[in-house]
Amino acid sequence: MAMGKIPGDSEGGDEVGFAEINITPLTDIFLVLLIIFMVTSSVIVQQAPSGGAQTGLKVNLPKGGATDVTARATDMSVAILSDGRFVLGGNVVTEDELKRAFTDAQQKDPDTIVIVQADEGVPHGTVVQVMELAKGAGLGQLAIGVREPQ
Hints:
By secondary structure, the chain is of the alpha/beta class. It contains 3 helices and 5 strands; from the N terminus they run αβββαβαβ. The protein has a 5-stranded mixed sheet, covered by helices on one side. Strand 2 and strand 3 form a beta hairpin. It is elongated. 16% of the residues are buried. The model has no long low-confidence stretch (mean pLDDT 76).
């Protein structure tokens, strides 16, 4: 802080004092905090369970109003897109990869629930095919994902 002599002072100085605030350290702190939050949020998104109930894709689910199934971290969510592709953990997979994922999930936890989220335009046979793959791997607890009615 620079202080000079104030006019009218008894010593007769003619300097006027200005107080300056240095905001550079404050700006540095905010930039460091911004970087920390950006890195932390990207790590949290990447640590989401790969086989959890979130597929990461928007699927146009049919409406339904039955009881809700609460997804656990060990549950698997399989999305079937309108063009017939299978999505598991945000990645498009083939039928063989889906079968292997069901087998691995059954070995880890036999009580794993398979949640099938099929687009409205998907043929019923494709949904049944995914359910049969899950049952063939030993996963007998199946659920169908629907939109909540407004």
